[in-house]
Amino acid sequence: EVHLVESGGGLVQPGGSLRLSCAASGFTFSNYWMHWVRQAPGEGLVWVSRMKSDGSNTGYADSVKGRFTISRDDAKNTVYLQMNSLRADDTAVYYCTREDVPGGVSNWGQGALVTVSS
Amino acid sequence: QSALTQPPSASGSPGQSVTISCTGTSSDVGGHNYVSWYQQHPGKAPKLMIYEVSKRPSGVPDRFSGSKSGNTASLTVSGLQAEDEADYYCSSYTDSNNFVFGTGTKVTVL
Questions:
Q1: Most buried pick, A31, B27, B88, B109, via CB within 10 A?
Q2: Is the separation of the CB atoms in B101 and A105 below 8 Å?
Q3: CA dihedral of A41, A43, A48, A50, whole degrees rounded to 10
Q4: Which of B1, B48, B91 is nearest residue A106 as measured by Cβ atoms?
């Protein structure tokens, strides 16, 4: 069974940094694109970033480009999201997801809450 | 990279059908067949209902169907059931090698 478990969320001040981790299990991690999707309280889903299975290709939403960095460690079956220069509007639950069908993600983690506030 | 446009709400009585639209541009919905639909119940993670415009993952009832015409994709839920009451989001691959979600539609079963 596929499991995605996010960690690293918490309260951070504006301008601060945070690194989210997502530990994957139940599948061959190195074969899949991995994505991060976020959802602010009471708001809709927003795609954040993705990384190709071999790490050679990444993509970012305009709203986080230059501030967030996605990375992966296939030896640890883990994908990361380094978030710098955090702003109040980055406050959201961040989901780690696996792209298991073309353009679609069937597997979601439980989410990690990031709160940016002074 | 603007969000795809969905109606804020849609509703129908049990047994009826409801169709949700998802309007983008030629750079996303209109230019690619990687359109997906997600269902999200309150407090839960989203669930993939449709991918590649009209394909259903295993386990998704055939009451759910997807289509696309030009820059607009659609999700139709036939034979509405109480458990279909949820938020629905579309998503699409874009020319920028990224993805974008829709604004979301709350479906109410009357």
A1: B88
A2: no
A3: 100
A4: B48
Of A50, A57, A62, the CB nearest to B1: A62
Q: What is the CA radius of gyration of chain A?
A: 13
Mean pLDDT of A104-112: 92
Beta strands in A26-118 (DSSP E): 33-39, 45-51, 58-60, 68-73, 78-83, 92-101, 104-108, 112-116
Residue A43 has pLDDT above 80, yes or no: yes
Please give the interface size between A and B, counted as residue pairs whose CB atoms are below 8 Å apart: 71
Burial category of B52 from C-beta neighbours within 10 Å (exposed 0-12, middle 13-18, buried 19 and up)? middle
Q: Kindly identify which residue of chain B lies nearest to residue A101, measuring between CA atoms.
A: B51
Is the pLDDT at B35 greater than 80, yes or no?
A: yes
Q: Residue A92 has which token pair?
A: 């959201």
Which residues have C-beta within 8 Å of that of residue A93, sequence separation ≥ 6?
A38, A39, A40, A41, A111, A112, A113, A114
> Cβ distance B80 to B17 under 8 Å?
yes
Distances (CA, A) of B104 to A30, A98, A99, B24: 32, 21, 20, 13
Structure confidence by residue, pLDDT tens digits, A87-99: 999 999 999 999 9
Task: Please report which confidence band the pLDDT of residue B59 belongs to, taking 50, 70 and 90 as the band edges.
Answer: very high
Do strands B9-12 and B105-109 pair parallel, antiparallel, or not at all (unpaired)? parallel
| Residue B91 parent element (H or E) | strand B86-93
